[in-house]
Amino acid sequence: MGLDEKVYDPELILKNISAAKNQQMTAKQYAQDPTYQVINVMEGMPKLADIFSRYTQRCLKADAMDFDDLLLKTYQLFRQYSAVLHKYQQRFQYIMIDEFQDTNRVQYNILKSLTSQHQNIYIVGDDAQSIYGFRGANIQNILDFKKDYPQAKQIKQEQNYRSTQNILKVANAIIRHNKSQIPKRIWTNNKSGPLLSLIKATNETEEADKVAHNIFTMQSSACGYEKFAVLYRTNKQSKAIKEALSKRAIPYICDSSESLGHVKLMTVHSAKGLEFPYVYIVGMIEGLFPFPAELEEERRLFYVAVTRAREKVTISYSLSYFLYDCEPSCFIAEISDYFMR
Description:
Elements: H1 10-22, H2 27-32, H3 34-42, H4 48-61, H5 67-80, H6 82-91, E1 95-97, H7 105-115, E2 121-123, H8 140-143, H9 145-148, H10 165-175, E3 197-201, H11 204-222, E4 228-232, H12 238-247, E5 252-253, E6 263-267, H13 268-271, E7 276-281, H14 295-306, E8 309-318, E9 320-321, E10 324-325, H15 330-334
Parallel strand pairs: 1-2, 3-8, 4-6, 4-7, 5-6, 7-8
Antiparallel strand pairs: 9-10
Helix pairs in contact: 5-6, 5-7, 10-14, 11-12
């Protein structure tokens, strides 16, 4: 097509096509949608609909499907061929789904098709941990579940076995600001534990140095660097942290594997499902955390970050980042009552 790959980035194109399919849109529907066409022109990619169409044709010629096609084609199959739907309704008469808050629109509609007769469905999920909207996850699936299945019994598992009481107080204080949620209040029989610590710095280098110094000081009493995790919003933030840890000869590892004797560095998204005694959440500034995106999802991401900790949470921010002046994250003000004075 003779397009500039610097403008029409392949990864970005696939992301846009995937997002459209997650909304149950075919290439033809996408090309006819005026909203998407305006957005594509504004983003400098007016040929995106044409690319989507050609990509679809190539897949058909090669008898190939991508992951999104597997979902979309299944949904279309069920809609168009009732005998096929009936066959699978009989095969899958009892359905259980975990991490329901991470499902997308197509997945939910497949589910509703399969359960439209027997209604035998069991879901597990936490709307407060719905953090994958950028991948197509739709929090409304779990929020609207009781509307679609009015006879469903809701069981709230509010007792927490991981974190201290003060960490859970912070988590509750964070999530209560979200309007779109299933009301609940997590609690624990664990000890009260310390309040949060707040580190303030003039720039990202000083912030990283203070975090590294704090870890170095605490590890002697904490018995091992493997008990520490540093979480950030984007991978770009890890550079200053790595340099600061290296200066103090503090070993670190940049993934979620359990390597003994190493501080864990990772994005908050990567940390979901994990837990650590001591958690540092760095770069808490406006425009970074929260990222300029959907504010309530960013707040849920902060909730996930805080609840990775078992013993202690430390939050840090700087007044400048890459030479730009910064403001502390609005999330800090929302939990100001829970910091050490």
